[in-house]
């Protein structure tokens, strides 16, 4: 069972640990990080979206200086990271037949190899199943604790069927075995929603505020 992080100012001050230079965080179990340094004084506007693409699903904010929430992140780490393998996944269901071409995710870097893997998976009984496309490796991630750069994964027109549930997974692969990254939560929909996370025992369903992601196609 996933343990929920309980936050208070005293714990933030007492339990934070440095990973990347200048980055401090607190976590109870390596699953959810709260950055405890001040947010970056340099805010990078998000990438302008391609108006020719159809939005299949998105909880990214249209405000370019606040595309997602900077400072609460779902942990993403590889098996050699010292935290164990932890991945996160968001479900979505297209409302029309479409071909997936791009995924944008609010992923930030903590330590290890600066890289993350993003891929598309089928649904298997309400959890992520077989890989349908990817993984796509995305590097040069910005340090955790800021906004609003996006990790962009491009796909070659992968068919998606109307009314079928799929999953976007942010995790690690052979290029990011020691990576420690964080997937920032979204700031447009604070409802508790179903998602999933992978740990050494496999995929597990959970309910929390979803990480920030945009899924686009043609």
Structural features, described:
This protein has about 220 residues and is mainly beta. The chain is about 5% helix and about 45% strand. A six-stranded antiparallel β-sheet has the order 1-2-3-5-13-8, with helices on one face. Strands 10-9-12-6-14-15 form a six-stranded antiparallel β-sheet, with no helix packed on it. Strand 1 and strand 2 form a beta hairpin.
Unreliable spans are 1-25
Shape: globular
Protein structure class: mainly beta
- Please indicate the percent range of residues in DSSP E strands (runs of 2 or more): over 45%
The CATH architecture would be Sandwich
CATH C-level label:
Mainly Beta
The succession of helices and strands, N to C, reads HEEEEEEEEEEEEEEEE
Give average pLDDT, whole number: 84
Strands ordered across the widest β-sheet: 1-2-3-5-13-8
* Helix fraction by DSSP (H/I, runs of at least 4): under 10%
What number of structural domains do the residues give?
Answer: 1
CATH topology: the name is Jelly Rolls
Number of helices: 1
Rg calculated over all Cα atoms: 16 Å
Distance between the termini: 38 Å
Sheet bearing the most strands, described?
A: 6 strands, antiparallel
Care to count the β-strands?
16
Question: What tags apply to this protein structure?
Answer:
Jelly Rolls; about 220 residues; mainly beta; 6-stranded antiparallel sheet; disordered N terminus
